[in-house]
Amino acid sequence: MNAFRLVGDLCHLAAIVLLLLKIWKSRSVAGLSGKSQILFGLVFVTRYLDLVTNFVSPYNTIMKVFFLSSSIATVYLIYTKFKATYDGNHDTFRMEFLLIPCALLAIVVNHEFSPMEILWTFSIYLEAVAILPQLFMISKTGEAETITSHYLFALGSYRGLYIMNWLYRYYYENNFDVIAVVAGIVQTVLYCDFFYLYITKVLQGKKLQLPA
Amino acid sequence: EKKDPKKDEL
């Protein structure tokens, strides 16, 4: 464990907590893409299948359990409890356009042609693009609530910090996983446009408004 | 042995 990865995990945790707080306090899922949350749930399910078979550390297990349960809870809140506030008309990104290419790529490009490894690879590729429905929805509505933009900033920062972690592990631990690194870079690059808007607008106290 | 790098990350 290094500081980059620890802070990265805490950013990820903060993002998920921020999202749950937003939903619970505002009693609404307005502006949230249920599709992105479904994809994130799928990422955790396919990545943490080894939760019970591969014990790494108490920290690792606790975080996996939290990520799994919170992402499933978020999907539940969006599609059942606060369904009335779900803005389905603007959450129209076709998930199959992400699921099918990621599945095919995971079958073709992976470290080992085994079910666990292919599912792990699929979860890595899917995580890189899972935010697209949410970013697409914001581009359609043209705005995002401030707390939703904090959520996105924390979520985007987590994988950015993981890139630093992979650099660190490459130089100091001789550990390197090209699939995770390339997907992580793609994932972080997808947030760049949002990072720019977040820093120039939200941090100036303005609401996140996309240029019409 | 070298722990599989990805398996100890979230």
From TrEMBL, chain A:
It is found in: Endoplasmic reticulum membrane. Keywords: Endoplasmic reticulum, ER-Golgi transport, Membrane, Protein transport, Receptor, Transmembrane, Transmembrane helix, Transport. The chain crosses the membrane at residues 62-80, 92-113, 119-139, 151-172, 178-199. The keyword Protein biosynthesis does not apply. GO terms for biological process: protein retention in ER lumen; protein transport; vesicle-mediated transport. GO terms for cellular component: endoplasmic reticulum membrane. It is a multi-pass membrane protein. GO terms for molecular function: ER retention sequence binding. It comes from the Eukaryota. Belongs to the ERD2 family. This is ER lumen protein-retaining receptor. It comes from Bugula neritina.
